Amino acid sequence: MTQISQKPFLDVLSGHRQPVPPVWMMRQAGRYLPEYRELRAKAGGFLDLCFTPEYAAEVTLQPIRRFNFDAAIIFSDILVIPYALGRSVRFEAGEGPRLDPMDTPEQVTGLATQADFGKLEPVYEALRRVRRELDPNIALIGFCGAPWTVATYMVAGQGTPDQAPARMMAYRHPEAFSKIIDVLVENSIQYLLGQLKAGADVLQIFDTWAGVLPPREFRRWSIEPAKRIVAGVRAQVPDARIIGFPRGAGAMLPAYVEATAVNAVSIDWAAEPSLIRERVQNRVAVQGNLDPLALIAGGAALDRAVDDVLANYASGRLIFNLGHGIQPETPIAHVEQMIKRVRAYRG
Ligand code: CP3
Questions:
Q1: pLDDT tens per residue, range 111-160
Q2: Those residues with Cβ within 8 angstroms of residue 118's Cβ, 6 or more apart along the chain or in another chain
Q3: Is 132 a catalytic site residue?
Q4: Ligand 1 center to residue 347 CA distance, Å?
Q5: Active-site annotation holds for 153
Q6: Pocket test for ligand 1, best of 42, 77, 205, 245 (most atoms within 8 A of CB)
Q7: Whole-number Cα distances in Å, 33 to 66, 107, 208, 334
Q8: Mean pLDDT to the nearest integer, 52-60
Q9: Which of 16, 282, 290, 300 is least surrounded, with the fewest CB atoms within 10 Å of its CB?
């Protein structure tokens, strides 16, 4: 009989398949939880929630207490880097992030090259607090946005359906655009190293908008920057464990994994199982990839969707997760149903 690991999440990342896949959810701290909504209202603004260590630590731990996930992810946002670079970043209720757009080479000339990491000290303090309070067998994940995805918000000043403003700037003004990317690469390396120092066990790089790029652009703006971040972090911390999430990468995933040297990739729900098994999971661990809508739907549809993920990937190294973040309208009972089914698996 296979020994059940005490630290299944870290063990999968170190190359050891687990008989019961470890499980957590992207955006597991968030609006589907009443205790989150309560603290969010008390904090005032979203950034106040992120930058008050006591609150950020509490919100990080809420889903762990409720569901006993195998990993906690520090509560913050990918847009704290532009904020620390001196850009204006606001979160308007129900509308998502708003930044001052930066879509001309002239504006890029004025971009700070070095973030004020003093502004991110509360994130480090929240990590220290969580690490103190968290069960030592539960992994703590630090994160940053991938340069491409962060740049899409910096250029457009907000999210857009296909991030056309950043794609356009990358074609029209590749030099100015690559300066933004370079600044984000350097500061993300420092930020991730700071998170490791503060107690993060694992790092995840979120490239939510990777899938809007054609292959040539994908290599330049998603793969290359991620590769530099991984190398920059490992130059200081050689055994740093890093998960990449190039959402929508599709057939580009094997190239991403090979070039970046991440320990795992997070895959979205549209991923094609045989491609993932034969050309991705044979090299690294895979994290994913339940459709968040199946989690909202619940019932037999949810059971079937959970079983599909397990059937597709649990014979290899798998971290069970969603294909993207959990949505605010998701019933808590459906999350419980999902976890119960995953933990009943023995493969
Ligand atoms: O996963 C977690 O529980 C940790 C916290 C976390 C948040 N954002 C909290 C958040 C993480 C890992 C992120 C990453 C993030 N932020 C990404 C990449 C991952 C992804 O989901 O695609 C992106 C693109 C952002 C930028 C961002 N932040 C957007 C587009 C929005 C608005 C959309 C939305 O869901 O409201 C945010 C706000 C945000 N970040 C919320 C949370 C819980 C909701 C804000 C609120 O509570 O009002």
A1: 999 999 999 999 999 999 999 999 999 999 999 999 999 999 999 999 99
A2: none
A3: no
A4: 33
A5: yes
A6: 77
A7: 10, 40, 23, 12
A8: 98
A9: 300
Predicted TM-score of the model (pTM)? 0.97
To the nearest 10 degrees (0 to 180), the angle between helices 224-236 and 253-260 is: 30
Q: Residue 252: what residue type? A: M
Helix (H) or strand (E) holding 242: strand 241-246
**What lines the ligand 1 site, CB under 6 Å?**
26-31, 40, 46, 73, 75, 77-79, 91, 96-97, 143, 145, 149, 159, 206, 208, 325
Quick check: is 345 catalytic? no
Q: Is 43 left (phi over 0), alpha (psi -120 to 50) or beta?
A: alpha
Rg (C-alpha) for the chain, rounded Å, is 19
Asked if 191 is an active-site residue, the reply is: no
Is 256:229 a contact under the CB 8 Å cutoff?
no
The residue contributing the CA closest to ligand 1 atom 7 is: 77
Hunting for tokens 């599709």 — which residue is that? 250
